[in-house]
Amino acid sequence: MTKNILAFYKFLHLKNPQKEKAKLAAFLEENSAVGTIILSNEGINGMCSLDQDKTEKVKSFLKQNFTLTRSDFKENLVSSNVFKKLSVKVKKEIVTLGVPEIDPTAIVGTYIEPEEWDSFISKKEVITIDTRNDFEVELGTFEGSVNPQTVSFHEFVEWWKDKGKALKNKKIAMFCTGGIRCEKATSLLKSEGLVEVYHLKGGILNYLDKVGNSETSTWKGDCFVFDQRVTVNSHLEPGDFELCHACRSPLRLTDRNHEHYEKGISCHKCFGTKTDKKILSLKERKKQIDLLKDRRSKNE
Predict the structure, then answer these.
(1) pLDDT digit string (tens) for 230-285?
(2) Rounded-to-integer distance, Cα 180 and Cα 205, Å
(3) How many domains does the chain have?
(4) Which one is catalytic: 48, 176, 244, 267?
(5) Which residue of 47, 99, 118, 273 has the smallest Cβ count within 10 Å?
(6) Is 223 a catalytic residue?
(7) Is residue 57 assigned to a domain?
(8) Residue 154 lies in a domain
(9) Beta strand 231-232 with 223-224: parallel, antiparallel or unpaired?
(10) Secondary structure (3-state) at 297
(11) Same domain, yes or no, for 115 and 40?
(12) Could you tell me if 264 and 289 are in contact, meaning their C-beta atoms sit under 8 angstroms apart?
């Protein structure tokens, strides 16, 4: 059955995230939605998979309770659920930068629409920064963009402290998967006095939806997504990557043909780094998954 993937985020002041969590989780369960939602005092960030006929009802609920607007949603049809279960969590931040005084509801960069993005970042005076993690950048990015080589988003602060002085008089354009990381990063830069700070509205996913595989596109490669698809290509179709269950690295077909790849156990990136105890645990996990798949196939 065809499912709709709904991605969204909104920076807003939530007085009681725990109360909102209970209400939101109950509503999503009632409408058979699965996915991952994060709430905090600074807002909401999530992605869920649901039946097409439930989409407008869920969007209406989110608009009413979290002030989202039509342009805050990104949608993509898939052939089946890309999440196993529903998870609604309350955290300190909806995306972890580690600078609590940053408030994107008060100060933020200027949006650049997807249709204008390629033209904008092609200007000589514009420095384009990919705010995603290093392994994501490796899979795909915009031509000529700067890779901060961070392992996690909160490392961006240290990178900026080190590199920012040389960029303070430049036009800075930033982007990320869905828009939330680059939006928060623009708030950081603006709070430090930078004037010309821009970010891709709706992130790469919105860009691929609006611009996609056009001849003028400067996007190259796949985009990592945080669900079972692992990546999507320029047409927003699932890529040919799989995750290593041991280290969570995205693996190409060539990686899965490597001599050190063992499905569910290791890949060439993590081979030899696990303890015997961990390897036994991974093998037992794989065994249980294979047994479950076998039972399901017999019952079909």
Answers:
(1) 999 999 999 988 888 888 889 988 888 998 888 888 888 888 888 878 878 877 77
(2) 12
(3) 3
(4) 176
(5) 273
(6) no
(7) yes
(8) yes
(9) antiparallel
(10) helix
(11) no
(12) yes
Best CA proximity match to 44, nearest among 95, 113, 107? 95
pTM: 0.88
Question: Under a CB-based contact definition with an 8 Å cutoff, are residues 235 and 212 in contact?
Answer: yes
Assign 257 to helix, strand or coil.
coil
Alpha helices in the chain (DSSP H): 17-30, 55-66, 114-121, 134-139, 156-163, 180-191, 203-210, 253-256, 276-299
CA 183 to CA 196: how far, in whole Å?
Answer: 14
Same domain, 158 and 192: yes
CB atoms within 10 A of CB 28: 22
Residues paired with 238 in a beta bridge: 232
CB-CB neighbours of 105 under 10 Å: 12
How far from 295 is each of 85, 228, 275, 287, 291, CA to CA, in Å? 20, 21, 31, 12, 6
Q: Are residues 58 and 121 in the same domain?
A: no
Q: Judge if 45 and 120 occupy the same domain.
A: no
Nearest to 14 by CA among 112, 88, 108: 88
Which amino acid type is present at position 219?
W
CATH number for the domain spanning 85: value is: 3.30.70.100
Assign 116 to helix, strand or coil. helix
Residue 167, domain member (yes or no): yes
CATH number at residue 114: 3.40.250.10
Question: Minimal CA–CA distance to 219: which of 140, 146, 148?
Answer: 140
Of the residues 190, 221, 252, which one is the last residue of a structural domain? 221
pLDDT tens for 111-154 read 999 999 999 999 999 999 999 999 999 999 999 999 999 999 99
> The domain containing residue 284 runs over which residues?
240-300
